[in-house]
Write a structure and sequence with these properties.
By secondary structure, the chain is mainly α. The protein has one domain. The chain has a three-stranded antiparallel sheet with strand order 2-1-3, with no helix packed on it. Helix 2 runs antiparallel to helix 5.
C-alpha cells in the first residue's frame, strides 16, 4: 500500500555542503588508517641501568676474599705473621748491654776483694756466685719479657688485621650497593625521560594521523549547525511501503548518525 510523504528539503547551499561532506567522508574512510606510526613503544634500558646490573652481577661474593684473609689471622700461630723482623736484634742488643753490666759487677767484686786482701778467697767466691746467679735470673726474666712484648704486639696486630678484614667484608658490598643504587636511579630517570619523549612523539603522530578526521568532524558539526537554522520547504511524494529487506538494510550506521545531525530539521513526514 502506497503512502503519501511530505519531505522538508534543505536550501540548495545546505544540500551542496552535505554532498561535499559526504564525498570527503567517503574519500577519507576509503583507505585504512596506518596506526604503525603511533604504536606504543617502550624506551630501551639506559646504559647506566645496564652498568648497574653488570656491577651487581660482578659484585656477587665480593666479600669472600676479605673473609678468607680474615681467617688467616686466626689460630694459635696467626701472630707469627706480625712478629717484628727486628725483634731478635733488639733482644740481642739488650742482652749484650746486660752482659756488659754483669761483667762490670763481677769486676767490682774482684776489685773490692783485692783492696781487702781477699782476692781469690772464699768470701769473694760466695759473692761472685750470688751475683752471677741473680744476674742469670734477671737476664732470663729480661729476655722472656722482651719475647712476651713481641708476642703481645704481634697478637694485637693479628686481631686488628682480622677486625679490619671483617669490616671490609661488610663495607665493600655496601659501597658497591650504593654505586648500584645511584647508577640505577640515574638510569631510571634517563629512561623515563626517553619514554616521555617517545610518548610525546607517538602522541604527535597520532594527532597528525587523526587530524583529517577531526577536521572533517568539525566541518560536519558546522554543517549541522547551519542546517538546523536554515529554512526549508515541504515536498510531497507517494512512495510504497518498504519491504522487510529494505527495512533491515536501512538500520542505522555511523554515517546515518552523522547525516542525521547534518540534516537537522529536515525530516520526512508520512500521511
Amino acid at each position: 500500500m502506497a503512502v503519501q510523504q511530505q519531505q522538508m528539503l534543505p536550501p540548495q547551499y545546505v544540500e551542496d555542503l552535505q554532498t561535499d561532506f559526504g564525498k570527503q567522508l567517503t574519500a577519507l574512510t576509503a583507505a585504512p588508517l596506518d596506526t604503525s606510526k603511533f604504536a606504543p613503544t617502550v624506551a630501551a634500558q639506559d646504559q647506566l641501568q645496564k652498568d648497574a646490573a653488570s656491577l651487581a652481577a660482578s659484585g656477587v661474593g665480593s666479600f669472600q676474599p676479605y673473609l678468607t684473609q680474615a681467617a688467616a689471622y686466626t689460630g694459635p700461630t696467626a701472630y707469627q705473621q706480625f712478629i717484628s723482623p727486628y725483634q731478635q736484634d733488639v733482644i740481642d742488643t739488650t742482652l749484650k748491654e746486660y752482659d756488659s753490666q754483669t761483667a762490670r759487677g763481677l769486676q767490682s767484686i774482684a776489685d773490692m776483694a783485692t783492696r781487702s786482701g781477699n782476692l781469690g778467697g772464699g768470701r769473694e767466691g760466695v759473692q761472685r756466685a750470688q751475683f752471677q746467679n741473680k744476674s742469670d735470673l734477671n737476664r732470663a726474666l729480661l729476655q722472656s719479657g722482651l719475647l712476651q712484648q713481641g708476642f703481645t704486639e704481634a697478637n694485637r696486630l693479628a686481631n686488628q688485621a682480622f677486625t679490619q678484614q671483617r669490616g671490609l667484608a661488610g663495607l665493600v658490598p655496601s659501597l658497591q650497593q650504593a654505586d648500584i643504587s645511584t647508577l640505577g636511579q640515574v638510569g631510571a630517570i634517563q629512561q623515563a625521560q626517553a619514554q616521555a619523549e617517545a610518548d610525546a612523539l607517538r602522541e604527535a603522530r597520532r594527532l597528525e594521523a587523526f587530524e583529517p578526521y577531526d577536521r572533517l568532524g568539525y566541518l560536519g558539526q558546522g554543517i549541522a549547525s547551519i542546517a538546523s537554522g536554515a529554512p526549508g520547504q515541504y515536498q510531497s511524494s507517494v512512495v510504497p511501503n518498504p519491504t522487510p529487506l529494505q527495512t533491515a538494510l536501512g538500520v542505522g550506521s555511523t554515517l546515518s548518525g552523522i547525516y542525521g545531525n547534518i540534516m537537522g530539521p529536515y525530516r520526512t513526514r508520512t500521511n
